[in-house]
Amino acid sequence: MVIVDLNRKNALQAFNEIQRVVKAAKSWKIATRIEITVLDGMIQLIGNGFVKHLEAATTGSCKLVVPLIHWYELIKMSQDKVLKIVITPGEAMIGRVTVNVVTTFFETDRILRSIPLAANPKTLDYLKLEYQGYTPEELEFNQVVSKIEEAKREFDECVASAAYILSPLRISKKELMKMVLQRLKEKEKIDFEI
Description:
Helix content is 40%, strand content 27%. With 194 residues, the chain is an alpha+beta fold.
């Protein structure tokens, strides 16, 4: 169990800023999720297009993933000056309201790092994740494994489509794949091997 005491005014201000970023990116949906990492003396709020740090009194370290809109509403409805958040396996409680959440308590640092992504991540943003030193546990916890696989399929489909169009010029899919990967390596400074 981890307990977090958080200044409501600061939390509300941070969530209002987050709401503006998410609405500007047109990704404010009921399914939009936020990752909250509780560290010693602070919490870190991470989502597509934002990373926020808030000072807080904490009793331990953990990570939880919650729907952004629900968390925002809980903070907005609270009347307390200091929000007391109690995090236990599978749930978080603010005041008398308990919410089911994905939680992880740190026994090792295998999933400690968060994965910051752009507000509207593109195929390339997901492709790069596999080559940036994240552990499989971090990728799985941050729920990007399926997005990475989808990005690989999209990359392959794009190259296949371009190769089909370029076939009258006798450029094969294999040659085109090699050219595209070389260009991505130069431009992104990542050694892609797809």
